[in-house]
Write a structure and sequence with these properties.
The chain is α/β, with parallel strands linked by helices. The protein is 27% helix and 21% strand. The strands form seven sheets. The protein has a ten-stranded mixed sheet with strand order 15-26-18-17-16-21-22-25-24-23, with helices on both faces. Helix 6 links the parallel strand 5 (180-184) and strand 6 (217-221).
């Protein structure tokens, strides 16, 4: 009988098939996103088209991939400047990863049908064609041979990508279920049609993944619009991750933003703006060159909401600052490769927020595809644009990735939603039992006057008892009579009082803003009441004020009383006793009341009602953005009597009237005897100017550091 051996030619094919079957029977190892991006993705367009994807080119991509690979999050939202690789890194890359590495279907969300073909031809198809997975593109049917992708595309390995848009009926978004959702331009999805009964369009898209529970993955990206838009709301509700990086000079870990970008303000030409524009370290005040910026940003670490980096541990952490490379664009290499000049492991203070949503924001400081000079030219041109509002909107959205009607620093923990949820235990019109002072303030306007009543508790915490508006009927009565009528209507409201311990209580301090063309009418009204209602006027560096506030040193025939950044002055021309207030100082004080938690002394609370009822009020409180500017000693007329950093408030929304009544109420409360002892000590929740003035560095030009405007 013949003996069969494995080397016989007729046996060898069977052996090979058996080995192949055993190999395929094992579960296939899936690469993490960071490795997939580096090994598979090629840049489809631009000056580096065809080159392998490199995590060092845009270091924020390392933070994003690490978050995806960690498995801690199910929802990812990313926002950053335009042309910074946002779509490729945070949407198309993950989509390709799930389609080809995980081999599972993906829902691709787009705002409308018009974008479907453009997005496929301009972004998705070039990205796939630049990889080895181009062989899996369909050869017939939708999406083949440059054709219309239709509602879905089936690749050769059987996996489908389904396009869903914000247009059409609800059923058009209900025909597919998948574990993975990738959505671009998500701001356009955040609306509810009058014919819809299923919530916003983005919520309907997310519902397509609910069957997979915690295994679902949702990737969304878009530029920022306003603080009430979908992107900023989701960013604030998630991890609120920001990159931090070490200064190349002092080694301090910082996170820089638009306020730290100097040098372009006083440039006379675009060329000067390009040459002088620099980021300034908030710790040592040294201007960064582009090489130093690339080195610093290349070391970035992820810091979430409520965290900060206090130091870096490691062999070089306590040594002198480590110099950056003399030239080049940061450290070459990918995830996992350590920088040869490592500062050690950053020590992050604070617990990571308990959330399944990873929300990442990077800005122009961290966008290494654009030099500082380019951003400086854009800022210089924007400041001189005829349509200032549109230019400012473009700078916020396209360069700094910040909410248009809010300040990034202010709104990190402060959003419209967070303000409307600061509810106290008292309904409208009721003062807390421990109320020690009640203030009423009126911000006069040509069409509408806004008023606010605050109850100040024993610990110095303000509680909003009531607020409202008064119609100024200037068309019927004429401006002078209408202003006077509005003042008397405000007096009637105040004299009716508010409930305090079962008794009616009228406000202890009542101020009316007399700035504007109606000053005489306000003065005459206050004189008539024998100054039971006091006229006030704000001064500051902001654009709404004629000049900055100057604190007098002593009282006399002109200055009758001096308070904390306000004083009572006798104006001889009108014979009125006017309260002059440092508006910038008290706006900062008011802002700290918004940032202080409600359970701590000094934290603002609102009367109890539905949160949405306070939305308009909250929008007014967030209508101005805080900025810091450096004022040299030679510019005493513009700021403090000695050089230093100064706060100024920039209006980003014209409806800031209740915000003005709030800062007026804070100053009025101090005039009425309210004191918050911790406000000058530690931790009342408010930001302070923590940066040192720019210092001179040997051998380096210091042009363009001054930030004040002439």
């Amino acid at each position: 009988m013949a003996v069969m051996v494995w080397t016989e030619p007729r046996v060898r094919p069977a052996l090979e098939e058996l080995l192949w079957m055993l190999g395929e029977a094992r579960s296939r190892a899936r690469r993490p996103l960071s490795r997939f991006m580096v090994e598979e993705v090629r840049l489809p367009t631009g000056p580096m088209a065809g080159e392998p994807y490199n995590l060092a080119t845009q270091p924020y991509s390392r933070l994003f991939c690490a978050a995806v690979d960690s498995g801690r999050y199910t929802d990812f939202l990313s926002t950053g400047p335009t042309q910074s690789g946002k779509t490729l890194t945070t949407a198309l890359g993950p989509m390709a990863w799930h389609l080809f590495e995980w081999q599972e279907p993906v829902i691709f969300g787009l705002p409308n049908d018009d974008m479907r073909r453009d997005k496929w031809e301009d972004d998705v198809l070039p990205m796939i064609e630049a990889t080895r997975y181009r062989e899996l593109l369909p050869t017939r049917g939708p999406g083949s041979r440059g054709g219309d992708p239709g509602a879905r595309i089936r690749f050769s390995h059987g996996v489908v990508v389904r396009f869903m848009t914000g247009g059409g009926a609800d059923k058009s978004r209900a025909g597919k279920t998948a574990r993975v959702l990738v959505a671009t331009e998500v701001e356009a999805f955040d609306l509810v049609k009058s014919t819809s009964a299923e919530g916003t369009q983005i919520e309907q898209l997310e519902a397509r993944t609910h069957a997979f529970g915690s295994r679902a993955r949702k990737y969304k990206e878009c530029t920022v619009t306003t603080s009430t838009g979908y992107v900023w709301r989701k960013y604030a509700a998630g991890s609120m991750t920001r990159p931090w990086y070490p200064c190349a000079h002092c080694g301090t870990w910082v996170s820089l933003d638009r306020e730290n970008f100097h040098g372009w303000q006083e440039a006379e030409t675009e060329v000067d703006a390009f040459s002088n524009a620099r980021l300034v370290c908030t710790a040592c005040g040294v201007l960064w060159t582009d090489d130093e910026r690339r080195w610093s940003v290349g070391q970035m670490a992820a810091v979430h909401r409520g965290q900060r980096i206090v130091e870096a541990s490691g062999p070089t952490a306590s040594g002198p600052p480590i110099p950056p490379p003399a030239s080049g664009g940061g450290w070459e290499g990918n995830l996992g490769q350590e920088c040869p000049r490592s500062l050690g492991v950053p020590v992050i203070e604070g617990d990571a927020p308990k959330t399944f949503s990873f929300t990442l924001r990077w800005n122009g400081a961290e966008n290494l595809l654009m030099d500082q000079g380019q951003i400086g030219v854009a800022e210089w041109q924007s400041a001189r644009a005829e349509k200032a509002d549109e230019a400012e909107r473009a700078m916020c959205q396209f360069y700094w990735a910040r909410a248009i009607d809010d300040d990034t620093e202010n709104s990190v923990d402060l959003t419209v939603q967070s303000l409307t949820e600061r509810l106290g235990d008292w309904v409208r019109g009721v003062c807390p039992a421990d109320t020690m002072c009640v203030t009423a303030t009126l911000d006069m306007g040509k069409h509408v006057a806004h008023w606010l009543v605050l109850a100040w508790r024993e610990d110095g915490s303000p509680h909003v008892v009531d607020y409202g508006t008064i119609t100024v009927r200037w068309r019927e009565l004429g401006l002078e009579n209408a202003i006077t009528s509005a003042c008397w209507e405000f007096a009637e409201i105040c004299e009716a009082g508010w409930l305090h311990e079962n008794q009616s209580r009228v406000p202890d301090v009542r101020w009316i803003d007399s700035g504007g063309e109606w000053a005489k009418q306000v003065y005459d009204f206050c004189k008539t009441t024998n100054y039971a209602y006091r006229p006030m006027k704000g001064f500051g560096a902001s654009q709404d004020f004629e000049k900055s506030y100057m604190q007098p040193k002593s009282t006399g025939s002109t200055v009758l009383h001096i308070g904390e950044q306000y004083h009572v002055a006798f104006v001889a021309e009108t014979g009125v006793r006017l309260i002059e207030v440092n508006a910038d100082y008290w706006k900062s004080y008011a802002y700290r009341r918004l940032m202080t938690p409600v359970e701590k002394p000094g934290g603002l609370t609102l009367y109890r009602t539905l949160s949405r009822d306070h939305r308009a009020f909250a929008l007014h409180l967030l209508a101005e953005r805080r900025e810091l500017e450096w004022v040299p000693e030679t510019a005493r007329s513009l700021g403090p009597r000695k050089g230093g950093w100064r706060e100024r408030w920039v209006k980003v929304n014209r409806n800031n009237h209740w915000g003005d009544t709030f800062y007026m109420g804070c100053a009025a409360a101090h005039h009425g005897g309210v004191r918050l002892e911790i406000d000058s000590a530690e931790g009342d929740g408010g930001p302070r100017p923590v940066v040192a003035p720019p210092r001179r560095v040997a051998g380096r030009k210091r042009r363009g550091v001054v930030m004040y405007r002439k």
